[in-house]
Amino acid sequence: MEKVIKVEGMTCNHCKMAVEGALKKLAGVSNAVVSLENKNVTVSFDEGKVTFEQMKEAIEDQGYDVVA
């Protein structure tokens, strides 16, 4: 499954790497690609192994805000 998550506060390559890295560490996430221009991250994942709440928490733990 693929989901686009709006994220506020990402401004640079470090932000991109932090969010992508945090998401890719989650069991069930196969890929995460940040678009700084669109202020979002596209996550490919197995919905049976990881929840939106877990992905949201991983992003927020890096210091960014998930916009519902």
Automatic annotation (TrEMBL):
Going by the UniProt record, its keywords in alphabetical order are: Chaperone, Copper, Cytoplasm, Metal-binding
Where in or outside the cell?
Answer: Cytoplasm
Gene3D superfamilies, alphabetized: 3.30.70.100
Residue span(s) of domain HMA = 1-67
In terms of Pfam families, this protein maps to: HMA
The molecular function GO annotations come to: copper ion binding
Annotated InterPro entries:
CopZ (IPR049740), Heavy-metal-associated_CS (IPR017969), HMA_Cu_ion-bd (IPR006122), HMA_dom (IPR006121), HMA_dom_sf (IPR036163), MerP/CopZ (IPR001802)
* Any one of the GO CC terms: cytoplasm
What is the protein name stated in its UniProt record?
Copper chaperone CopZ
Q: Which organism is it from?
A: Tepidibacillus decaturensis
